[in-house]
Amino acid sequence: MTPMREVYWNIPGHLFLYLLLFPFLVVWLYGIYRHTRMILAGEPAAVEGSLWDRFKGVVQYAVWQQRIAQDPLSGLLHRSISWGFIVLFIATCLVALQDYLGIPTLRGPFYLYFMSLTVDLFGLTAIGGVLIALARRYGLQPDRLLQPRIAKSYGILLVLLLIILVTGFLIEGLRIAASADPWGQWSPGGRLASALFRGTDQAHQMFLHGILWWFHAAMAFTFIAILPYGMGMHFTSAAANVLMKNREGSGVLRPIDLERAERFGAGAINQLTWKDLLDLEACTECGRCQAACPAWATGKPLTPKGVIIDLRDHMRLVADGEESRKMVGEVITHDVLWACTTCGACHQECPVFIEPIPKIVEMRRHLVMEEADFPETMQAALRSLEERGHPFRGATASRTDWARGLDVKTVAANGTPEILYWVGCAAAFDERNQQVAAAFATLLQRAGVDFAILGEEERCTGDPARRIGNEYLFQTLARENIATLNGYGIKKIVTACPHGFNTLKNEYPKLGGNYEVVHHTQLLAELVQEGRLRLQKPIDGVASFHDPCYLGRHNGVYDPPRQLLSAIPGLAVKEMDRCREQGFCCGAGGGLMWFEEKIGKRVSWERTEEALALGPQVLASACPFCLIMFEDALKVKDAIGRTRPLDVAELMAQSVD
C-alpha cells in the first residue's frame, strides 16, 4: 500500500482560497511599498562586497542566526519559530505543486518522512518557540526588555502565529480521525490532536474540519497582510539588513566629499542614507545593544535602542506628514548625542548588524559643522587641533621632549626607517604617557628594530575631530599627515594608540594613505616570539587587562597583549567579567576625552570598580586614553597606592632582560 493522502481533503471549494488571498495580498504589497518608499527617501549608500559573500552572511546570521544564538534562550526561541515557519511554508508550497502541477509531494516515502514527520516536528517546535517568546516578552522579562517602547504588534503577531499553528494541528487531527488515516502515526502533532475528537462522530469531525480549515486560512492570510505594519516588518527587513550589512570595520566612519557636499551631517531624517533607514526598520527592540552600552549602564540618557526606535518612529511620522519636531535636538537630544563613546558595543551585540554610531556621528556633524553647537571643552580641543596640531590645550612640551636622552632618530635626519613609530598626541604631550613612549622606544632599541619618528612633523591623526563631528578638520589633518608619510615613502607604521591605529589603518586609505599599520602590542609579541626580547625579570602580583575599544572590538586585536602579560614571570592575569568582545569602555572614546560627564556616573569609575573587585596590583591597558582615565579614577577611588595603571610596554620594560 502506497503512503499518500488526498490534496485538500474535505475542501471541495478550495479554489476560492485564491480569491480570499487577493485582498490580503494587496494590503501586504501596500505595506511593503510604503516602507520601501520611506527607506529609499534616504541619501545614497555604497554597497560593497560580492553578492555571494552577502548571501553567505544571510545564511550565517539570518537563517542559522549565529549572533542571536549567543544568548542560548533567545537562540532557541528564534530558531524554533523561524525554522518552523520556513518548513511549514515550504510544505504549503509543495501541496500547491501537487494540486496544480501534479508533482506527487503527498505520495510515497517523501510524504511520510518530510510532509508528515518532519513538518509536524518543526510545527511543534514552533509552538514551543512562540510560547517561550510570549513568556520572555510579557512574563519573565530580562532588564533589556523592560521598556515601555516595546511594540504591542509583536505580541499580536506571536498570538496570531500561535493560533495558526494550533489550528493547523487541529485540522490535521480532525482529518486523521475522520478518515481513519492509516498513515496518521507518522504525524505526531496531528495524531495527538486527533485524540481530542475520538468521541465525536465522523459527520461532526468533517464539519469542524471544514470550518477550522477556512478559519486557519483566513488567519494565515491576516498574518501575512499585517507583517509590514508595526513590528512585523522586522521579519523581512532584518534579513535584508544582514544582506546589505556594512562590510567595513565598525570603527570606520563614512567620509564627506567636502568639495561637492551641499550640507554637512544629517539634520533631517531623509539626510541619513537609505542603509541607515533600513537599520531602523530592522530593529526588533531586543535591547542587547542597550544592555552593553556604557552610557546607559552609567545613567546617561543614551540607549542605542532608544536612538534607533526614536528615529524609526520619527521617520514614520514624517512619512505620514504628522511630525513637526526637529530630529536633532528634539527627537534626539544633545545629551544623548554627546553621551556616546563610539565604543562599538552596540554594533558588536546587534543580531542583525544595526549600526547606531554612524547615525550619531552624522547628527554630531550637523551640530558641529552646520550649527556650531557643541560643548565648550570640545570646542577648545578642536581649536587646539587647528592651531597646534594636537588637542591637548595648555601643553607646553614639544613632540620630542619625551625622547630626550634616548637617542631616538627622526625620519628627517636619518632617512626612511623600516618602521615608523607614530608617537601620537597623548604620548607626546601627556606627562604620564610620555613614560609609555619612552618604555616602548627602549624596547625597540633593545630588540634592534630600525625605527624612527616624525618628531615635529607629526600631527594628530584627526580621530578626535572626526568622532566629535568636524569632518573638515579631520580631512585637513589627515591629508597633511598623508603628504608627509608619502613624501618619506613610509611603508610600515607602529603606534601605541588604538585610536591612531584605527584611523591610520582603516580610514587613511580612503584619502590616499595606504600603509601596513600594527599596534605596539602586536609588534612586541612578534619580537618576543622571535627571541629578540626576553622577559626574564619577575613581576610578582596580579594584573587585570582592560581591552581598549578601538583595539579590541573595532579591530579584533585581543590576544597579543594577553600573550605578553602571560609571558612575564610571576605575573598572574585575571580577566574582568566584561572582557574581550564584551569589554567595557573606559569612557574616553568618541571625543569624550574632552567632555565633562555631568550626568550619571563616570564611565571610567564603573570600569575601574570592576577591575578593583579582582584585587589587582596592576590595571594594565594598551591605550594612552585608557591610561589617563584610569589614573584619574584610581585617585578618586583612593586606590592608586595599591593598584598601578600601567601600559603593557611599561610592564615589559620592567621584565626584559
From TrEMBL:
Gene Ontology MF, one: 4 iron, 4 sulfur cluster binding
Segments crossing the lipid bilayer: 15-33, 76-98, 110-135, 156-178, 206-227
Entry keywords, A to Z: 4Fe-4S, Iron, Iron-sulfur, Membrane, Metal-binding, Oxidoreductase, Transmembrane, Transmembrane helix
Domain 4Fe-4S ferredoxin-type: 274-303, 330-359
Domain of life of the source: Bacteria
Pfam families: CCG, Fer4_10
GO cellular component assignments: plasma membrane
Keyword Nucleotide-binding: no
Cross-referenced InterPro entries: 4Fe4S_Fe-S-bd, 4Fe4S_Fe_S_CS, Cys_rich_dom, HdrC_iron-sulfur_subunit, Helical_ferredxn, NarG-like_sf
Name of this chain's protein: Lactate utilization protein A
Organism: Candidatus Methylomirabilis lanthanidiphila
